[in-house]
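Dear colleague,

As promised, here are the two records you asked about, laid out in our usual form so they can be pasted straight into your sheet.

NAME FIELD: protein one
SEQUENCE, THEN STRUCTURE:
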Amino acid sequence: MHDPARLAAMLLADGYVIVDNAVPTELITALEAELAPRFVATPFCEGGFYGARTKRFGALLRRSRHIGVTTRK
């Protein structure tokens, strides 16, 4: 089980935190399959700020029908 206080402390100290097994592997697989067409259809960014090999998405996960699924057991 993940300790929220410990994760918050790590986030504050390091500026990031990696949460292993935060969601089931099956959810990641389903998201990948569902959103793959959007990744393919989205053009690469233009201009020097973002770089030529960057794609930008807004609210990407909200576009998935899988995100409303509860991941807690």
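NAME FIELD: protein two
SEQUENCE, THEN STRUCTURE:
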Amino acid sequence: MPRWYFEDFTPGFVLEAAGPTVKTEDIIEFATKYDPQYFHTDPEAAKDSLFGALCASGWHTAAMCMRMMCDAYLLDSASLGSPGIDELRWTRPVFVGDTLKWKMTVLEQRPSRSRPEMGSVLSKWEVFNQKDEPVMHMTGWGMFKKRAP
């Protein structure tokens, strides 16, 4: 039985969670498959890039955020998926050795008019490094079953 249902995600509700420490091999593995730009795949060449060092792809950062979301609440919720993300911004590079953390803030909650057993939740998800510097944020909707339709 899930812990989290639509009714639990009221505006202003906040969850926070610790995340991974980013490793060289993880950056290179992800980038080799999905974003093979040299500043994500070649530590030596990355020194001459705008970033000055090997850094994670923004898509890798988003994937790590998704994992933190799953671990923090989604896998223990009555999630019905998502219709998409409204906004996604990468605000600072993620480098080897950065330790990430995650924060979710509920912005809005809407019961479904056509499906009384569910509702939608608008959230802002933020990812920070170990210096509490924001590295990414996104907003989007999630759909959840109601505890008691």
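A couple of things worth noting about protein two: The helical segments are 24-34, 38-41, 43-46, 58-72. The mean pLDDT is 97.

Best,
R.
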